Amino acid sequence: MNPAKRRTVIAGNWKMNFTPAEATEFINTIKPMVAGKDNCDVIFCAPYVTIAAAMEAAKGSNIKIGAENVHFAPKGAYTGEVSAEMLKAIGVEVVIIGHSERRQYFGETDETVNLRTKAALEAGLRVILCLGEVKEQRLSGITNEVVAMQTKLDLAGISAEQLKNVVIAYEPVWAIGTGLTATPEQAQETCAVIRGVLADMYGADVAETVTIQYGGSMNEKNAAELLAKPDVDGGLIGGASLVPEKFTAIVDAAQ
Ligand code: PGA
Question: How far is the CA of 236 from the centre of ligand 1 (A)?
């Protein structure tokens, strides 16, 4: 973390978990636990149907509720999808785009990730843009090339001004939900590669201001070590974001 240069962001990705009632209970439990811990943004990204209940429960707290995806079209014949305007209309400010589960199971490509990111930014949403290599790519030694290419393609056509509303989540796919975590050194090295690509695209001064999270089995035990790295500015947390004590311990590690 480098709080002098950029904001630390600790975000939970609930994935397909929590009904509205469960989300309300969760937020009511964790609200006092994270109260006043203002050295980082505290965000939970929720399933569409759960957002309203989670927001209601989070009112007046330092917790923000986001969405887990957004479509690129303003409206139309896209069964099952939700537009940026729709999210804005219910008060959503943050959205995850390009999660590896979307890429892996739902056919998302860098092209659709780029389109979704542009639409979200144009609507005034803040984007948590996910990218990262799969296991075979790390084992073949091409991680840096893979994340560099994703960074360039996913951010194509996005201005430096718009980039102020982008958080990048570096998520090695082999570490997501597997209990395997990148070592702090691996996380640092790859986050620094991404920042280097941002420097090429936008200049070093702009690159220094971009929050880059690590995601992939971040938990209450490894968070402090990961967040101690200079280019790791937060976490995108799946499993541990479903347990108030675990998530709070990660927020504590960011203070
Ligand atoms: P995990 O998920 O923390 O359960 O590995 C991270 C993510 O998918 O964002």
Answer: 7
Give CA–CA dist 164/206, Å, rounded.
9
Q: Please state the pTM of the whole predicted model.
A: 0.97
Domain boundaries defined on the chain:
8-253
Q: How far apart, in whole angstroms, are the C-alpha atoms of residue 115 and residue 156? A: 9
Amino acid of residue 198: L
> Whose alpha carbon is nearest atom 2 of ligand 1?
238
**99 flagged as catalytic:** yes
pLDDT in tens, 37-92: 999 999 999 999 999 999 999 999 999 999 999 999 999 999 999 999 999 999 99
CA 235 to chain centre: 7
The pair of structure tokens assigned to 8 is: 């630390």
pLDDT tens for 139-186 read 999 999 999 999 999 999 999 999 999 999 999 999 998 888 899 999
Catalytic, out of 68, 108, 133, 171: 171
Kindly report the CATH number that applies to the domain delimited by 8-253: 3.20.20.70
173 within ligand 1 shell (Cβ under 6 A) = no
- Residue with the nearest Cα to atom 7 of ligand 1? 238
